[in-house]
Write a structure and sequence with these properties.
Ferritin; 7 helices
Length: about 160
Amino acid sequence: MLAAFLLISVAVAAFGSLVSVSQIDGWYAAAPHAAWTPPGWVFGAVWTVLYVLIAVSGWLLWRRRARAALTLFVVQLVVNSIWTPIFFGGYPILGPVALWIGVAIIVLLDLLVVATIASAWPRSHAAALLLVPYLVWLLYASTLNWGDAILISLL
């Protein structure tokens, strides 16, 4: 069953990549970014590790039959999969509005991951702790999304 959770994480990552790859070298490369934006290669490296941690966390929740936490886990993963197409794919269609929608989505995602961690903790400390790096990265990514939305809206 761990393989299934890994495949789900790979599917979410692949879906995001399909939308973002063409945009990263397009509008995103030309756009102004917050001063604390890392080089592009960092995103792929970090997300690779995070998706493995996310998958193992989900598997542990499944093994513990932590239904409430697993439900939140699935919901946050769905919201995670929505952010990339809105942020990257939406910008050429909607302009800066897509970035502000991205802000709303990533803030919702932040809250869902906090709720997932809190719900997981009583059933599996390990599952909850595996999501902490994901939350930290999401909070950082939220500042990047917010920064891009502000800077690009000012153009």
